[in-house]
Structures are given as C-alpha cells and as structure tokens.
Amino acid sequence: MQQTQTVGGTSHAELDAWVKEVAAHTRPKEVVWIDGSDEEIERINAELVEAGTFTKLAEDTLPNSYHALSDPDDVARVEDRTYICSVEEKDAGHTNNWMDPQEMKDLLWPLYEGSMEGRTMYVIPFVMGHLEAEDPKYGVEITDSAYVVASMRIMARIGAKILAKMEETGAPFVKGLHSVGAPLAEGQQDVPWPCNETKYIVHFPEELAIWSYGSGYGGNALLGKKCYALRIASVMARDEGWMAEHMLILKLTNPEGRTHYIAGAFPSQCGKTNLAMIQATMPGWKAELVGDDISWMRFGPDGRLYAVNPEFGLFGVAPGTGADTNPVAMATIEKGNSIFTNVARTPDGGVWWEGMTEEPPAELIDWHGERWTPDMGKVSSHPNSRFCTPITQCPTIAAEYDEPNGVPISAIMFGGRRKTTVPLVSQSRDWQHGTFVGATLSSETTAAATGAVGVVRRDPMAMLPFIGYNAGDYVDHWLEIGKQADADKLPKIFMVNWFRRDEDGGFLWPGFGENSRVLKWMFERIEGDVEAQESPIGYLPHPEDIDTDGLATSTEDVAAALKFDAEEWRQELPLIKEWFAKFGDDLPSAMEDELATLEERLAGA
Ligand code: GDP
Ligand code: PGA
Ligand code: MN
Ligand code: MN
C-alpha cells in the first residue's frame, strides 16, 4: 500500500490512533492537521477557488470573502437521515430515529471504505465554548471537505492551541468523522460541491462519537454545531446537570443602565439570529449580542443559571436580512472574512438575496449558477441560503461574550411561527408551567430542514431535531433543573410570537427592531415594575404597558397581535394531547397536571 503523506501530528495517543485508523480505512491521498494559522487558511481558500467550490468576492466591498453554491440536493439539514444510536432504543425516545450502534456501524463503516480516495483528509481540533472554561469541551473533526475546514474555522475555536491543551490535559473529546462520500479516481475531474445521494448524520452518545456521511451542508457537516453542541452536549448536560439548548443569548440594558441577559429558543428560521442582533427602536435602550443559536447553561456559585455561547461564528439565514430588518447583521458581513452559500452573486463580485434591498439588482447569477433577472418570477437565492461570519465582527457584540463562565440569565423566551392562536407575548406562571409551554411549543416548518414548509408541528424547546436522547427524559431534566434553584433565582419564562397574521395574510406585528418593545415589557416584568393580567395560558400584558411610542402599526393590529382567544386555545388542546400521547410512559406527570390545569382554565374562560 502506498504511504499516505501526513502534515502535522499529535502526541495524544488516543487521537493519533483514531486518526490513523480512519486514514487507513478511508484512504485519502494525504492527511493534514489543521493548525488554524492565517497561511493555512489562505492556502485552503485558494484551493477552494481553484476547485470551483469558492468564488472570490470583490475585495474592496467584501474583503476575504467567498461565495459557494451547493449541490441543489444538499441545501439543508436532513432530519429523516439523522440518527441517535444510543445503546438502548428507549434512550433515543420517540422523536429520534434509532438504530443499534453496532448495526449502524456495520452499515456505515463500509461506506467510509475508500471514501476519501483522491482527497485530502483534514484533522480539525476544536473546542466548543472557551478554552479557559473550567471544563473545556473538546472535539476533533476529521473531514475530507476543505469547505468544512474553512467554515469550522469561522464557527468554532480551532487549531494548534486547542490541540496543545488536549495533549497537555488528556481530557475527553468528541470524535467527529465526516466524509462527503465522493472518492476521486485517478485522473477523475472533481465537481465544485462533492456529496453523495446517500446521507447519514449519526450520533453515538455513549461513545461521544459522530459519523456524518454524504452531505457538505453546514448543519450536517460542521460537526461542532448541531451534532456536538446540541445533540451530544444535551446528553452530556443531562448526565452532568447542565443544559444545552437551541437558544440565542442577548444582553439588554435599560435607559437607567440596568442590565439583564435573556435567552430565547425559537426553531430554525424563526428569528434567533435577528433577535440576537436587534437594535432597540426605543430611545435609551440598548441590546447586545452574546449568542445567536446555541446556549450552554449551568448554575453558578450564586445559584443562578449562567449561559455561554459555545460557538465562535454566525451561520445566519440570508434571505430577509437587509439594512431595514437587520442592519447589525449587514454591518457584520460587510467587514468580510465570510462565506456565503446558495445566495445570488452580482456581476461585480457582490452578493444579493431576497430582502437585502427592496429592489433587486437588474441582473444576478442565481443559486443554480444561472443568469437571473427580476422578471423571471423565481427567487435568486435558496430560502435556506446562509452567511457564515466571525461573531467578533458584530458591532453589537457584548464584551461578556468572552466570559468563560458566561452570563446570568434573567429570562428565557420560547417562540415559533404561528399564524394564529399564540399571542405576541405571555409569561408563564412558574418554572413548571414554563416547562409545559416549552414542551408544547409549536411552529410552522421552514426551509432549514428538507421536507414540507409551513406545516405546524410540536417542537419542544425548539429542540425537536436536536435532543440527543429521550424527549420525555429531556422534559424531565428541565423539571429537575427547576428544582435545583430558588424560584426567584430561576429565569422567568415567556412565550412570544412575531408571526401572527391578519385575515389577508399580513403580519400583525412589524417584528425585527420593534420586538424590543416586547423585550422592554419582559425587562419590566423581571424587575417587578409592571403588573400583568392572568389568563389560562399565563400572564398577559395590559395593552397600555406595551410601549407603542413612535410605532407605525395601528392600535387594532397591536391589539390583535396581543389577543388571547380562548376558542383558538380550546382548538389547540387536542393537538397537545395528541403530542403528549406520543411520549407514552416517558411523559413526566407534571406535564399531565399542567395540561389538566390548562383545560380547566380554558373551560372557564
Ligand atoms: P434563526 O434561524 O432562528 O436564527 O432565524 P433568523 O433570525 O435567521 O430569521 C429567519 C427568517 O425569519 C429570516 O428570513 C428573517 O428575516 C425572518 N424574521 C426574523 N425575525 C423576524 C420578525 O420579527 N418578524 C418577521 N416577520 N420575520 C422575521
Ligand atoms: P438556525 O440554525 O437555527 O439559525 O436556522 C441552523 C439550523 O438550525 O439548521
Ligand atoms: Mn439553529
Ligand atoms: Mn440563526
């Protein structure tokens, strides 16, 4: 057998053995250990341009930025191809696909045989969260995709510094194996976006291992993000008494200079990144970004829940992002150092997507790589097209972002896309009620995952695709967390809905920056400065307590957005029951109690 050339290496025996085992099986032409240096990424970017995966964008407007178009069948997370292979089937629960770990390996390992032929195998050491954290959470991703290397470099803390600390401490690490599943025969011409029709995104929680095959799309291939920081980490968190959640984290400061940190769980494509980068529309209020997608929370010495953002970059939905809706995101992107995937390109080396500007440019190259003009009546960018940008470039980043032990959370929001039923904002009565609100959260499906769009589904804590274990145990873990702290130290829990519609299908609430008016009400509730009215679904604002100074929306629309409608909620009951029935015996009894309470209160409403 021909000797594989290797650049770099490790003194970490377990890691070394694993990398060698994978290389012997996948047979890459070379193995490259990623050190994270500038020279290294310059070389890799140049190779990606050479391969046609990347197009370099105009240096004067988007410095050090690149454009990529995926295979048209590799544009989103593939939930039906995602597995939790716990040893026991019951530990995967009813929300996950499951297969016996050995059976899955017997199926997958042969797919990896020779799967990296003709390609470079990269080894990326990374840490999720801070290297200086009390208990840094390490990982290593093996991948045959240079696009993944370039993206991981933005999304996580990677490279030689991480590897050195892993070698020094011998701490456990998650083993992530990724292959696009597209070996190259001698002399075979590569395609810009190699991938395989067969896709598997597989987690072995007991072994801290992830095997991803066939896809190059971010959520399937950047293994630090959804696979590790949510699915695997949720299992670690259950075992170690903390929480790994699909939540943004924002810092909110009122005109008097008082501060609260608020976390928010919304399903993919439901507004986390936008809210995390919000600019308050009311004078004197200030919002800053801590995290936009993932929050790891654990109790601090003072008994409060502290959250860190384990990521290092933003992987944001491009369409709908513009100077009007999210000027902070636009300013972040314009600093460059970004990768844009499946958006349209302008003839002068810029990017464009639906919603960036009101008027589209006269001519574009669309996400299929074809000439596009506005009169064609089709979108130029894929609805799940993304920007991938260093978080430190965000002009509103909070300094505490770099705090290894995180920020104390005063409130948690749950939200989703609901055309009807769910009011603009309500507050849960207590932690258990809030857990019920989270466990029954519902939202219309989006383009972030393959499959139908716009279908209402239950999405517990916005974690449906990301809970790495039994969903009943997960809800129980939430209840347990609530028992570990005094009620007054726990975050208050709110439910929001920016997406309620009028009869003509228009949004009742303007959303985006104006959501700060809702944040203000939450802030005042946290501080105990404002009364609320009781309702069967929790506390509702008195309409006059929502600050509408300078808001262009009509009073009727605001009232309709805020409205609690008992009849709509009575129609929700059978859906909640149907959802709970799926848990079988795994549903904590406290959830049955909360459902009974809701039913009773609705009967009297
Ligand atoms: P994430 O995937 O949860 O981070 O969601 P994003 O913040 O990326 O937003 C997803 C989509 O929802 C984008 O097209 C946004 O423009 C849109 N969006 C975000 N916030 C709002 C809002 O408050 N109102 C409305 N109508 N749309 C929003
Ligand atoms: P999102 O993250 O929540 O920002 O959409 C990506 C995803 O969930 O696929
Ligand atoms: Mn997400
Ligand atoms: Mn996002």
Please specify the SSE layout and strand pairing.
Elements: E1 5-7, H1 13-26, E2 30-33, H2 38-50, E3 54-56, E4 66-68, E5 82-84, H3 101-112, E6 120-128, E7 137-143, H4 146-155, E8 157-158, H5 160-169, E9 173-179, E10 200-204, E11 209-213, H6 218-221, H7 224-240, E12 243-245, E13 247-253, E14 259-265, H8 272-276, E15 286-291, E16 295-299, E17 305-308, E18 313-317, H9 327-334, E19 339-341, E20 344-345, E21 351-352, E22 364-365, E23 371-372, E24 386-390, E25 407-415, E26 425-427, H10 431-439, E27 442-444, E28 456-458, H11 471-483, E29 492-496, H12 516-527, E30 532-535, E31 538-541, H13 555-562, H14 566-581, H15 589-603
Parallel strand pairs: 1-2, 2-6, 4-19, 5-10, 7-9, 9-11, 14-25, 25-29
Antiparallel strand pairs: 3-4, 6-7, 6-8, 10-11, 12-16, 13-14, 13-15, 16-17, 17-25, 18-24, 19-24, 20-21, 22-23, 26-29, 27-28, 30-31
Helix pairs in contact: 2-4, 10-11, 10-15, 14-15
This protein binds guanosine-5'-diphosphate, 2-phosphoglycolic acid (PGA) and manganese (II) ion (2 copies).
Task: Describe this protein's structure.
There is one protein chain. The protein is an alpha/beta fold. The protein is built from 15 helices and 31 strands. Strands 1, 2, 5, 6, 7, 8, 9, 10 and 11 form a nine-stranded mixed sheet that branches. Strands 12, 13, 14, 15, 16, 17, 25, 26 and 29 form a nine-stranded mixed sheet that branches. Strands 3-4-19-24-18 form a five-stranded mixed sheet. Strand 20 (344-345) and strand 21 form a beta hairpin. Helix 10 runs antiparallel to helix 11 (471-483), helix 10 packs across helix 15 and helix 14 runs antiparallel to helix 15 (589-603). The mean pLDDT is 97. It binds guanosine-5'-diphosphate (GDP), 2-phosphoglycolic acid and manganese (II) ion (MN) (2 copies). 2-phosphoglycolic acid binds at residues 77, 219, 268-269, 272-273, 293, 315, 317, 448.
